[in-house]
Each structure stands twice: as structure tokens, then as C-alpha cells.
Model the fold of this input.
Amino acid sequence: ESSIAVVTQDPLPFDHNYVKRIEFRRLIDPGILRPNSTEVALRSLRTLSTIADNLLREPENPKFRQFKPTNSIIKRDLVNPKGTLEYAVAMGFRPEVADFQPYYSFNKKHLADLEIGAAILHEMIEIESSKHGGEELKLKIAKEEEEDRIHRAKQAFLDDRKTQMLRAERERVQRAHEAQR
Done:
């Protein structure tokens, strides 16, 4: 008689941050990338990354510990696009009001979330930039080909005008030469 062991637990994740990394990736992929255009999504991810990097570089600097949702760049890159404020909240920013001004302030106890969120942002920016870098290269090549085609057409037109002008000059000289005879 042999007994077969049945595994009833899920396999252990690679580390204790595994679930948090998956959560951040999901906030980006369906949360930010799908509802927004590629250009808007990448700009938003870069803005989030800049905020996170500045805060990780200088965690005690009050300038980097908060941002105003009324700031024009923050409004364009974080408030208006779907999913970006949720990502900022997941990294540890919380909405507050001081002197009747809204702010998102960072709480130090979420430093680990900020580090994970920043790493995932760098990873996703690299992936998305490389994906769309190929598309941008194709568009650039197509644009250059179109410009070359236009240049060749203009050059053909100018060559035709020059040929017509030379032919007209030859005919004029020939008529003048025949008139002298």
C-alpha cells in the first residue's frame, strides 16, 4: 500500500513582496495602460516614477513628500488619466487638506510600498517604451519615406520645368537663326 501526499496549500510565493508586486503590475496594466492612450499612459508612468525616485533619493525633503493635485503637470499626468492616482495611493500617498488646499502627502510607514512601486514603474516603463519604440521607429521610417517621395516628385517637376525651358530656348534660337537666313 502506498500513500500519496496531497498538497492542500498554494506554493509559496518567491518572496514576501510577490503579492504587492502583482498588485502594482495590475494597477498599471489594466488600470493605467488600457483606459488611456499610449502617450498619456507613458507620460503618467514617467511622472509617477519621477515622484517616487525623488522621494526615495531624499525622503526627508518636504518638497518631495507631497504634491498638489491642482498643479498643472500633476493634473495633466496624474489627476486626469484613469488609474494614476490609485497607483500613487498604493505607493503611500494619502489625500489631505491644509489651508484649504488639497495635497497628497506621503506617509513614511509606506516606504516599502514606495520602493516596490518605483521598481515596478521602472520595469513597466522600459517594457512599454521598447514596445512602442518599435512602432515609433516604423512611423519615423514611414515619414522619412514620404518626405523622400515628396522630394523626388518636386525634383522631377523642377527637372521637367528646366527641360521645357531649355527646349523653348533652343526653339527660339533656332527660329532666330532661320529668320536670319
